[in-house]
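Reopening this ticket.

The earlier resolution said the output was attached, but the attachment link was broken on my side. Pasting everything inline this time so it's all in one place.
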Amino acid sequence: MAKTVTIFGSSRPKPGEEEYEIAFYLGKKLAESGLNVCTGGFQGIMDAVSKGASSTNVEIIGVTINLYNATPSKYLTKEIKTNSLFERLKNLVNIGDAYIALQGGTGTMLELALVWEYMNKNMIKPKPFASHSKMWKEIIKIMEKQIALEQRQTGLIKPFEDINECADYIIKCLI
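Inline output:
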């Protein structure tokens, strides 16, 4: 059974914008490696990942939430509808055999922090987790200092500025 990568990212990027095109490429590369993808199921980075994966025969899962008046990505092969943010987050975490955080705002930061906290407190077993962007690299660097001071496990999220290195890390971990 193919493994699944949950990808977190902003709903804002549009086709043709750099963040959208990076997410499209990532979805395509993961899918071509035989990995399923899972996102929050809507537009922006979520749609780009789904679209990128759509030229292959992998599962493209979207975990949507009924609170938003948003249109799910047309590239999904499976939609899991949820009624609360916490139910959505639980599904996104549980479905992933690995995680990638792309550029995003507070929603993406919440998702990154939730998975990081779950792994750090042994609420879920550690799974491969990569982030892509200079922003996440800086945030992770700052947080790793605090985590080390608290004598907790560091190195749970691998930051990358190159999308190929980011994708290759996850692919290598899962295949």
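Reporter confirms the inline version is readable. The longest strand covers residues 60-65. The chain has one domain: 4-174.
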